[in-house]
Amino acid sequence: GVALMSTTGWAQYVLEDDYTANGNFFDQFEFFNGSDPTHGYVDYVERDYAESAGLIGNNYGKIYMGVDHTNVVGKAGRPAVRIESTKTYDSGLIIIDIEHMPGGICGTWPAFWMFGPNWPKNGEIGMFVQSIAFPHFADMYKILSRASTINQTTT
User: What is the DSSP letter of 72?
Assistant: First the structure.
């Protein structure tokens, strides 16, 4: 599950959003369905397609997001899901519990990251990134992310 806590004082947090409550996880996100802004070989699909193709699901409070792993990859790339939150935050504690995520398998780049209102100009914070192409990139990315801010102002 995913939860966001906001501060109310020294080391006290209040649950602000629980993305797994009431079984409406996917209602709280927009499905990105344009071409990949990082120029990857992937075909991001809309929610209706993702649901009918079994790329997303919510079973017993466990959220599933995956790729089409049964069909031959098409010209546009492998159908996959990319979701973006409909809410924005400027502070808080984010808790995410991932039961399974693909490892550094060739052709995968599982990630959980946040970005500013004008990406990439306002930066991004990588919570985690895995890649077989750049095995040490994930560690470097975490270090670089700590030095950036998504609220950075630019002129």
Answer: P
